[in-house]
Design goal:
Layout: H1 3-15, H2 18-25, H3 29-43, E1 48-49, E2 56-57, H4 59-85, E3 92-98, H5 99-103, H6 105-116, E4 121-127, H7 129-138, E5 143-148, E6 161-175, E7 195-200, H8 205-215, E8 223-229, H9 232-240, E9 246-249, H10 254-258, E10 263-264, E11 272-281, H11 287-308
Parallel strand pairs: 3-4, 3-5, 7-8
Antiparallel strand pairs: 1-2, 5-11, 6-9, 6-10, 6-11
């Protein structure tokens, strides 16, 4: 049994619909349904009455939720206490960052921030967005830095969590060039010559945004999914080798674009911008976190003030 299965059931119990619970858990509805089924197989009884709307738990499901919630709370408190013992000494922060951002944006951002603010030590954990959200909610990290897109929002209670925009990143389709420097593949593709598609796995945030770009494109894309990965850096390597087209954040491919290893496979109609957002809990008691957040708020106000001018 996996803890995330129990968390899925608790979300379904609260929100009463698979679609809403899946949004809160930052996974697809089909993935949530599969995980609930896996939990039921592990328990050995049905936990959800799928014949009702809104969705109701069975008597066994309600009992399992009650006991499971207490057990989960105890485990998370124990883990938090054990991690606190291992916290870095002095002024320090625990940061959970999206995989791509942890390798591209975060190191440069920390350098720039330290040039104008007090120094602090940082322990960075690279994670997918669902796991980063869980870490933030459980208090396992002080700061979460992830991508945000209005059509794939992160659903966090604004009364419990603060957020600020740190920057933005372009997100566009790229592929390897041919010998003349032109793209090997061009969107939208045709039925006679579909474009090989290097895709993210279904539960990833960038995968959700890429699917939105494909669905909302000016023309119908004819794509042939030939490879999947859960990290942008893996898709970068496959794209460079000429396997197909991948939607990638600009920050992850600056060097590859400069060297001509990757080129745009489609125009602006296939592209979008991603916000880079920071999140923290309003109940966070780390003084270093409070100092950092105050500095971020001041920088945000200065930026908006200059924009207004």
């Amino acid at each position: 049994m996996q803890i995330k299965w129990l968390e899925d059931l608790l979300a379904l119990s609260e929100w009463k619909t698979f679609s809403r619970a899946a949004e809160v858990r930052c996974i697809t509805q089909s993935a949530l349904s599969r995980r609930i089924r896996s939990l039921e197989d592990w328990v050995g009884v049905e936990l959800v009455d799928r014949g009702t709307f809104p969705v109701q738990l069975t008597a066994a499901g309600r009992s399992f939720c009650e006991e499971g919630r207490e057990t989960l709370t105890g485990l998370l408190k124990l883990r938090s206490a054990l991690r606190e013992v291992e916290r870095m000494p002095g002024r320090s922060l625990q940061i959970a960052a999206g995989h791509s951002l942890s390798m591209t944006f975060l190191p440069k951002w920390l350098t720039q921030f330290h040039q104008n603010n007090e120094q602090f030590s940082a322990r960075v954990v690279a994670a997918n967005i669902p796991d980063a959200i869980i870490a933030l909610e459980e208090g396992s990290c002080d700061l979460m830095i992830v991508y945000h897109h209005p059509l794939a929002p992160i659903l966090l209670d604004p009364e419990k969590f603060r957020s600020l925009t740190l920057g933005s990143d372009a997100f566009f389709p790229l592929c390897a060039p041919d010998k003349k420097g032109q793209p090997l593949y061009r969107l939208p593709g045709t039925s006679a010559r579909p474009v090989p598609f290097l895709a993210y796995t279904a539960t990833t945030f960038l995968g959700r945004v890429a699917e939105i770009m494909i669905k909302n494109g000016a023309k119908v894309n004819v794509l042939e999914r030939c490879y999947e990965a859960d990290m942008a850096m893996l898709l970068v390597r496959m794209a460079i080798e000429g396997y197909g087209v991948a939607w990638l954040p600009q920050s992850a491919v600056i060097d590859e674009l400069r060297r001509g290893q990757l080129v745009r496979a489609g125009g602006d109609e296939w592209s979008t911008r991603l916000e880079i957002r920071s999140y923290c809990s309003v109940t966070n008691k780390n003084p270093t976190m409070h100092s950092l957040w105050k500095s971020l708020e001041e920088a945000s106000l200065d930026l908006h003030g200059k924009s207004a001018d």
